[in-house]
C-alpha cells in the first residue's frame, strides 16, 4: 500500500521552486537578448544562431515536463522507499525502478532545453555522455514496462502449491532481473557514444547523431525501433491479451482482488505507447529518407521537410510519459488509502499474488 510521506509536500515545493527559477531564467530573462528576424516573422535571432518557433515550443514543452515530472517522480521514490521491506511486491519494485529511470531523464532535460534555445555549448564529450545517460534511462523505462507485463503474465499463469518455496526461489531471480534490465539498457545505448557528435547546423551547434554510412544509419535506426518499440509492444500486447482472456474465465473474487493493480499497470503501459509512438515514427521517416535519398530525390525532399517540421517536438513528447507515471501512482495511492482498513486482512494475500 502507498502512504504519503509527511515531508512529501515540502520536497515537492522546494524542487518546484528551484526548477521554476531555472525555467524563468531560461525562457524569460534570456528573451531580452532576442531580436526579430527581418526576413522571417517566425524566427528569433540569438547571438549564436537562429531559433524558430518549433524549437522554442519544444523547449517550453520540455521545461514544463521537467517542472512537473521531476518533483512528482522524486515524491513517488520517497513514498515507495519509506515502505521498503522484504515482503514488498515485485510490482512495486518495478514501479520504483520506473520512477528512478524517469527521474534520470528529467534531471538531464535542462541540457536539452539549453541545446534547443542556444545551441550546444557543453562540448563534445558532454554531448556523448549526457545523451548516453538519457538513452540508457529511456531503455530502462522501456524494459521496466515490458517486464511489468511479463511478470503479471507469469504470476497469473503459475500455479504452485508451495508459494513460500516459490517466493524464496524467485527472490534471487528477481534481483538478477533488475540487474539484467539495467545491463541491457546500458548495452542498447552504447551506439550513442560512437555516433553522437556536435555539428554546426542552421546557424547553431547541435548535439545530434552523425553517421556517414547510409547502411550504418539504417542499421542503428532499425535496431532502435526493434528493441525500443516493436519487441516491447509484442511482449506487452501478448501478455495482457492472455491475462484478459484468463480473467474472463476466473471467479468474481479473483477479478476484484487483482483489478486495482492491473488497472494501474495497464494505464502505465497505455501511456507509454501513446507517448513513444511519435519518436519511432520519426525514426521510420529517417529510415525512409536515407533509403530514398539517391533513388527518389522528390520523395526524399518531402520526407525531409516533414522530419524537420516535427522532429524536435516529436522527440520531446516521449518525455511526457515520465510526467504521467507519477500521477498514475497518486491515483493508486488514493485508492489504497480509502480502502486501507477494508483490505488490511488481505495484504498478505495480495503481496503473495503480486510478488
Question: What CATH architecture label applies?
Answer: Up-down Bundle
CATH superfamily: Rhodopsin 7-helix transmembrane proteins
Q: How many strand segments?
A: 5
Residue-averaged pLDDT, rounded? 75
- Summarize the helix and strand pattern as letters: HEEEHHHHHEEHHHH
Outline, from the CA principal axes? globular
What's the number of helices? Answer: 10
CATH topology: Rhopdopsin 7-helix transmembrane proteins
- Find the structural class using helix and strand composition: mainly alpha
Poorly predicted runs of 5 or more residues:
1-9, 27-49, 338-355
The largest pleated sheet is described as:
3 strands, antiparallel
Radius of gyration: 23 Å
CATH class: Mainly Alpha
How many domains make up the coordinates? Answer: 1
Keywords: Cell membrane, G-protein coupled receptor, Glycoprotein, Membrane, Receptor, Transducer, Transmembrane, Transmembrane helix
Pfam family, one: 7tm_1
GO cellular component, one term: external side of plasma membrane
Transmembrane segments: 58-82, 94-117, 129-150, 176-198, 218-243, 264-285
Description:
- This protein is mainly α.
- The protein has one domain: Rhodopsin 7-helix transmembrane proteins (Rhopdopsin 7-helix transmembrane proteins), CATH 1.20.1070.
- It is 76% helix and 6% strand.
- The chain is built from ten helices and five strands.
- It has a three-stranded antiparallel sheet. Strands 4-5 form a two-stranded antiparallel ribbon.
- A hairpin with a 2-residue loop joins strand 2 and strand 3.
- Helix 2 packs parallel to helix 9, helix 4 runs antiparallel to helix 8 (252-292) and helix 8 (252-292) packs antiparallel against helix 9 (297-338).
- The two termini are 13 Å apart.
- Residues 1-9, 27-49 and 338-355 have low confidence and may be disordered.
- InterPro entries: CCR1-9-like (IPR050119), GPCR_Rhodpsn (IPR000276), GPCR_Rhodpsn_7TM (IPR017452).
- This is Leukotriene B4 receptor 1.
- It comes from Ictalurus punctatus (Channel catfish).
Amino acid at each position: 500500500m502507498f502512504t504519503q510521506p509527511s515531508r512529501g509536500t515540502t520536497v515537492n515545493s522546494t524542487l518546484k521552486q528551484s526548477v521554476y527559477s531555472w525555467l524563468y531564467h531560461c525562457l524569460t530573462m534570456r528573451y531580452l537578448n532576442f531580436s526579430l528576424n527581418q526576413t522571417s516573422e517566425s524566427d528569433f535571432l540569438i547571438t549564436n544562431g537562429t531559433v524558430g518557433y518549433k524549437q522554442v515550443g519544444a523547449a517550453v514543452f520540455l521545461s514544463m515536463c521537467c517542472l512537473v515530472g521531476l518533483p512528482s517522480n522524486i515524491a513517488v521514490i520517497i513514498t515507495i522507499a519509506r515502505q521498503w521491506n522484504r515482503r514488498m511486491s515485485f510490482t512495486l519494485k518495478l514501479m520504483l525502478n520506473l520512477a528512478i529511470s524517469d527521474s534520470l531523464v528529467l534531471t538531464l532535460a535542462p541540457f536539452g532545453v539549453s541545446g534547443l534555445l542556444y545551441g550546444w555549448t557543453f562540448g563534445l564529450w558532454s554531448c556523448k555522455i549526457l545523451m548516453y545517460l538519457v538513452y540508457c534511462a529511456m531503455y530502462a523505462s522501456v524494459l521496466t514496462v515490458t517486464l511489468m507485463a511479463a511478470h503479471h503474465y507469469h504470476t497469473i499463469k503459475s500455479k504452485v502449491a508451495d508459494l513460500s518455496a516459490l517466493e524464496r526461489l524467485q527472490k534471487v531471480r528477481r534481483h538478477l532481473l533488475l540487474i539484467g534490465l539495467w545491463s541491457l539498457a546500458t548495452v542498447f545505448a552504447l551506439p550513442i557514444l560512437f555516433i553522437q557528435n556536435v555539428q554546426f547546423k542552421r546557424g547553431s551547434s547541435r548535439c545530434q547523431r552523425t553517421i556517414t554510412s547510409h547502411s550504418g544509419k539504417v542499421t542503428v535506426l532499425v535496431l532502435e525501433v526493434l528493441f525500443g518499440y516493436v519487441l516491447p509492444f509484442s511482449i506487452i500486447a501478448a501478455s495482457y491479451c492472455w491475462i484478459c482472456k484468463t480473467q474472463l474465465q476466473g471467479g468474481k473474487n479473483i477479478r476484484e482482488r487483482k483489478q486495482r493493480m492491473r488497472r494501474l499497470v495497464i494505464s502505465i503501459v497505455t501511456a507509454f505507447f501513446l507517448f513513444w509512438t511519435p519518436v519511432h515514427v520519426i525514426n521510420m521517416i529517417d529510415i525512409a529518407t536515407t533509403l530514398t535519398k539517391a533513388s527518389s530525390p522528390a520523395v526524399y525532399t518531402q520526407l525531409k521537410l516533414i522530419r524537420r517540421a516535427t522532429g524536435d517536438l516529436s522527440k520531446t513528447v516521449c518525455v511526457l510519459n515520465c510526467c504521467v507515471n507519477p500521477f498514475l501512482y497518486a491515483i493508486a495511492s488514493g485508492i489504497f488509502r480509502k480502502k486501507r482498513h477494508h483490505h488490511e486482512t488481505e495484504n498478505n494475500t495480495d503481496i503473495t499474488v503480486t510478488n
